[in-house]
């Protein structure tokens, strides 16, 4: 696992965005995947660095879980999700022989691997690098910030679900951003409302409005909400490009709008 | 699984390994002398202290999941509520999710503080026979972030197990954060002397969740932690208007059922998505009391009964101290 990395591997990366949430299972990886696809469709070159070492989900979500990373002179070559090589991904998922293998590591080992991920992946030219993180405010978050700081960190997108139990954890993540000086690009509310496919009744499965309320309370930008959509869950499960498959859905419009807002915020 | 200090060199063999203090990587490490002396290979004395403390605790149950947001805390809280209702059992709920403590809110104790007594920290009580401990009770404001690396989190877990005045308990339910890292290793290690009855694994139906949960099961095997069974949460959503069921999180690979068959585990039950569960959690109430006649409450009760049966057939939990 030791690769002779070049400090300049991030030199061609224009913008670095963290995707954070204090809470697990709110859709950080789903939002990261869809943001990356939306940016790619908007003509950008995008990279995803998955630093969730104990639960890497992105390889499956992009349908590349069977791929392996290779090495070149300047480090690890990321896995590309498309033949045009406009969407690159690096994840610990590519380094495990057995997908069920548990990465039972304490902090220092995780910190060391994240340092390598930041230093040794040959991203090439990228418009945006999205960093998907595990839940919490601990080793992985500190490690990735410390390592990326030497290059740049443009801000963070915070993901929450509507209910108070989730926004409570995200408030802590906002404090983390303030303490570590990371700009908050905005808050995305995921899983907000489910439209019954039988009768079109919209149910607030996980309560409602929490994301927007949290944005107001903390003076952050509200980037938008993404409904609970079984078609999105299914696309994520099967590693298919939801945005390409369902361009007429309401979910598509929300995801596109969120990606545009993030791009605009990055121009500021 | 060895401990590696933060100031250790890159190829540190781990402070508890045979090579500690002796490998080539140890040259120049500030910890070399102490590692070479063998002191670091001895078990943490806290394990023995915790064993003494836990002598009055009959059953210890961990609630685990590789994946976040699948309902570990919701389940832990309702398991504790169900165990403590009716037949006057003494129950405690310990939240070791140090960076995202949700338990105080779910049991309606947000804003409460822990008190110091002569015999240690006093837990906060929901009912006379339901005690709760969480780092949430030690924070000044709901915005306070616990930005801690592993060793500090481990120290906190040690204190929770050793220094809280738990008293006589029938059940100790431990709610964990997602993943297979410091918190999980620490709680299993610290309770290794006292013995753990087993783990309840929570998942949602979709493969994105199951792939993380399989890792957690592998973790249980590695640390020789028995798995009591698996709970599938958010399993189907019944529209409150037309009563049709939708699979919001589709079980594309057969859900928990198939995974349990493949891995030879018990499926304890499936809990449907019911918006009233989330609402009860936000309001700090027990869903089992709020809507006792719902299918979700019935599913919970069946699962809790299976866990009770497992524990009572496992009376000598000290037998697990290998």
From TrEMBL, chain A:
Co-factor binding details: Binds 4 [4Fe-4S] clusters per heterotetramer. Contains two stable clusters in the N-termini of NUBP1 and two labile, bridging clusters between subunits of the NUBP1-NUBP2 heterotetramer.
Cofactor(s) required, per the database record: [4Fe-4S] cluster
Protein role: Component of the cytosolic iron-sulfur (Fe/S) protein assembly (CIA) machinery. Required for maturation of extramitochondrial Fe-S proteins. The NUBP1-NUBP2 heterotetramer forms a Fe-S scaffold complex, mediating the de novo assembly of an Fe-S cluster and its transfer to target apoproteins. Negatively regulates cilium formation and structure.
Binding site for ATP: 22-29
UniProt cross-references to InterPro entries, sorted A to Z: Mrp-like_CS (IPR000808), Mrp/NBP35_ATP-bd (IPR019591), NUBP2/Cfd1_eukaryotes (IPR028600), P-loop_NTPase (IPR027417), YlxH/NBP35 (IPR033756)
Binding site for [4Fe-4S] cluster: 196, 199
Subunit structure as annotated in this protein's UniProt entry: Heterotetramer of 2 NUBP1 and 2 NUBP2 chains. Interacts with KIFC1. Interacts with NUBP1.
Superkingdom of this protein's organism: Eukaryota
UniProt entry keywords in alphabetical sequence: 4Fe-4S, ATP-binding, Cytoplasm, Iron, Iron-sulfur, Metal-binding, Nucleotide-binding
Annotated protein name in UniProt: Nucleotide-binding protein 2
Species whose genome carries this gene: Pygocentrus nattereri
PROSITE patterns associated with the record: MRP
HAMAP family registered for this protein in UniProt: Mrp_NBP35 (MF_02040), NUBP2 (MF_03039)
UniProt xrefs under PANTHER family: CYTOSOLIC FE-S CLUSTER ASSEMBLY FACTOR NUBP2, NUCLEOTIDE-BINDING PROTEIN NBP35 YEAST -RELATED
Pfam family membership, one: ParA
GO terms for MF: 4 iron, 4 sulfur cluster binding; ATP binding; ATP-dependent FeS chaperone activity; metal ion binding
Family designation: Belongs to the Mrp/NBP35 ATP-binding proteins family. NUBP2/CFD1 subfamily.
Entry's localization field: Cytoplasm, Cytoskeleton, Cilium axoneme; Cytoplasm, Cytoskeleton, Microtubule organizing center, Centrosome, Centriole
GO BP terms in the entry: iron-sulfur cluster assembly
One GO cellular component, as annotated: nucleus
Automatic annotation (TrEMBL), chain B:
Annotated Pfam families: ParA
Cofactor requirement: [4Fe-4S] cluster
The keyword Metal-binding appears for this protein: yes
Biological processes annotated in GO: iron-sulfur cluster assembly
Compartment(s) of residence: Cytoplasm; Nucleus
Cited PROSITE patterns: MRP
Organism expressing this protein natively: Pygocentrus nattereri
Domain AAA+ ATPase: 58-229
Annotated SMART domains: AAA
Record text on cofactor binding: Binds 4 [4Fe-4S] clusters per heterotetramer. Contains two stable clusters in the N-termini of NUBP1 and two labile, bridging clusters between subunits of the NUBP1-NUBP2 heterotetramer.
Keywords on record: 4Fe-4S, ATP-binding, Cytoplasm, Iron, Iron-sulfur, Metal-binding, Nucleotide-binding
Gene: NUBP1
Gene Ontology MF annotations: 4 iron, 4 sulfur cluster binding; ATP binding; ATP-dependent FeS chaperone activity; metal ion binding
The protein's name in its UniProt record: AAA+ ATPase domain-containing protein
SUPFAM superfamilies, A to Z: P-loop containing nucleoside triphosphate hydrolases
Annotated [4Fe-4S] cluster 1 binding sites: 12, 26, 29, 35
Gene3D superfamilies cross-referenced by the UniProt entry: P-loop containing nucleotide triphosphate hydrolases
Region feature Disordered, mapped onto this chain: 1-23
Annotated ATP binding sites: 66-73
């Amino acid at each position: 696992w030791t690769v002779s990395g070049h400090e300049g591997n991030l030199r061609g990366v224009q913008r670095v965005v963290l995707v954070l949430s204090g809470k697990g299972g709110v859709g950080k990886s789903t939002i990261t995947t869809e943001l990356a696809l939306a940016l790619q469709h908007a003509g950008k070159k995008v990279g995803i660095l998955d630093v969730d070492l104990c639960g890497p989900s992105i390889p499956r979500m992009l349908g590349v879980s069977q791929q392996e990373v290779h090495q070149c002179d300047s480090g690890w070559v990321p896995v590309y999700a498309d033949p045009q090589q406009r969407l690159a991904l690096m994840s610990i998922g590519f380094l495990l022989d057995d997908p069920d293998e548990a990465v039972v590591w304490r902090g220092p080992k995780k910190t060391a691997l994240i340092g390598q991920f930041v230093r040794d992946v040959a991203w090439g030219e990228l418009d945006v690098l999205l960093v998907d993180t595990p839940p919490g405010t601990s080793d992985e978050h500190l490690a990735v910030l410390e390592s990326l700081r030497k290059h740049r960190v443009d801000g963070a997108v915070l993901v929450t679900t509507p209910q108070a139990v989730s926004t409570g954890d995200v408030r802590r993540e906002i404090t983390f951003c303030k303490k570590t000086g990371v700009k908050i690009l905005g808050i995305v509310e995921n899983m907000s409302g489910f439209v019954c496919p039988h009768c079109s009744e919209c149910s607030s499965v996980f309560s409602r409005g929490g994301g927007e309320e949290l944005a107001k309370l903390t003076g952050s930008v509200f980037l938008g909400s993404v409904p609970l959509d079984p078609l999105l869950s299914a696309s994520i499960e099967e590693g298919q490009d939801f945005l390409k498959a369902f361009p007429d859905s309401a979910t598509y419009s929300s995801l596109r709008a969120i990606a545009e807002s993030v791009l605009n915020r990055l121009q500021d | 699984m060895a401990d590696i200090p933060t100031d250790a060199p890159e190829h540190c063999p781990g402070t508890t390994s045979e090579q500690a203090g002796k490998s080539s990587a140890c040259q120049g490490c500030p910890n070399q002398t102490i590692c070479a002396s063998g002191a670091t290979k001895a078990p943490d004395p806290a394990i023995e202290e915790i064993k003494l403390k836990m002598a009055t605790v009959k059953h210890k149950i961990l609630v685990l999941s590789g994946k976040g947001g699948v309902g570990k805390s919701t389940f832990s809280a309702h398991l504790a509520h169900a165990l403590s209702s009716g037949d006057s059992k003494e129950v405690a709920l310990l939240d070791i999710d140090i960076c995202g403590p949700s338990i105080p809110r779910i049991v309606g104790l947000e804003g409460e503080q822990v008190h110091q007594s002569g015999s240690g920290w006093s837990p906060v009580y929901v009912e006379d026979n339901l005690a709760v401990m969480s780092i949430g009770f030690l924070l000044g404001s709901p915005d306070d972030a616990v930005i801690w690396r592993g060793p500090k989190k481990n120290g906190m877990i040690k204190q929770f197990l050793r220094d809280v005045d738990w008293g006589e308990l029938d059940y100790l339910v431990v709610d964990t954060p997602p993943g297979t890292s410091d918190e999980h290793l620490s709680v299993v290690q610290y309770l290794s002397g006292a013995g753990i009855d087993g783990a309840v694994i929570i998942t949602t139906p979709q493969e994105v969740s199951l792939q993380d949960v399989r890792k957690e099961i592998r973790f249980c095997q590695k640390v020789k932690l028995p798995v009591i069974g698996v709970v599938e949460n958010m399993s189907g959503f019944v529209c409150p208007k037309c009563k049709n069921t939708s699979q919001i999180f589709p079980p594309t690979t057969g859900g928990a059922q198939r995974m349990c068959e493949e891995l030879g585990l018990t499926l304890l039950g499936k809990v449907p998505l019911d918006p009233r569960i989330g609402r009860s959690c936000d309001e700090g109430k027990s869903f089992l009391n709020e809507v006792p006649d719902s299918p979700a409450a019935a599913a919970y009760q069946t699962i809790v009964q299976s866990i009770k049966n497992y524990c009572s057939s496992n009376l000598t939990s000290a037998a697990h101290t290998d």
